[in-house]
């Protein structure tokens, strides 16, 4: 389903990670500053097991919507990046999220209210 609107995909992605109890879900609209994605989603889980479950929920969404997906970091489960096309998700453990503080990189993007 290549013609899935990016905002619709974002809403489905947020719903998916929220369904796995992801914490502190933040979204940045980077359409004005990025050519690779429209939205960046950042969240964390309380353990590597939960991080992997959150990532799996996004992979299931991609499969359901027939989207090509790229996943990095799934084996370790500390920081998993999932590229859904117009939405790129970063799923961390809390410690890794605090260490890398990706939110600071996306201040140019507009934070999206959820």
Task: Provide structural commentary.
The chain is α+β, with helices and mostly antiparallel strands. Helices cover about 35% and strands about 30% of the residues. It has three helices and six strands, in the order H-E-E-H-E-E-E-H-E. It has helices at about 5-20, 50-65, 95-100, and strands spanning about 25-30, 40-45, 70, 80-85, 85-95, 110. The protein has a six-stranded mixed sheet. A hairpin with a 3-residue loop joins strand 4 (about 80-85) and strand 5 (about 85-95). The protein is globular, with a radius of gyration of 13 Å.
Set out the fold topology.
Blueprint: H1 6-19, E1 23-29, E2 39-45, H2 48-64, E3 70-72, E4 79-83, E5 87-93, H3 94-100, E6 110-112
Parallel strand pairs: 2-5
Antiparallel strand pairs: 1-2, 1-6, 3-4, 4-5
Helix pairs in contact: 1-2
Strand content: 25-35%
Number of helices: 3
Termini Cα gap: 24 Å
Number of strands: 6
Radius of gyration: 13 Å
Helix and strand element order: HEEHEEEHE
- Low-pLDDT segments, ≥5 res: none
Overall mean pLDDT: 91
Q: Tell me the structural class.
A: alpha+beta
Q: Reading side by side through the largest sheet, how are the strands ordered?
A: 3-4-5-2-1-6
- Percent helix, as a range, is 25-40%
Q: Which shape, going by the Cα principal axes?
A: globular
Largest sheet: 6 strands, mixed
Q: What's this, in brief?
A:
By secondary structure, the protein is α+β, with helices and mostly antiparallel strands. It is 33% helix and 28% strand. A hairpin with a 3-residue loop joins strand 4 (79-83) and strand 5.
């Amino acid at each position: 389903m290549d013609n899935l609107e990016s905002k619709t995909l974002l809403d489905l992605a947020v719903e998916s990670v929220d369904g796995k109890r992801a914490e502190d879900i933040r979204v940045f609209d980077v359409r004005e500053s990025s050519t690779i994605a429209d939205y960046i989603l950042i969240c964390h889980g309380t353990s590597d097991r939960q991080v992997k479950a959150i990532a799996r929920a996004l992979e299931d969404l991609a499969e359901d919507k027939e989207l090509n997906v790229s996943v990095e970091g799934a084996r370790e489960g500390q920081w998993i990046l999932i590229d859904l096309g117009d939405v790129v998700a970063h799923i961390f453990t809390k410690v890794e999220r605090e260490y890398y503080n990706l939110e600071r990189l996306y201040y140019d993007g507009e934070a999206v209210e959820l």
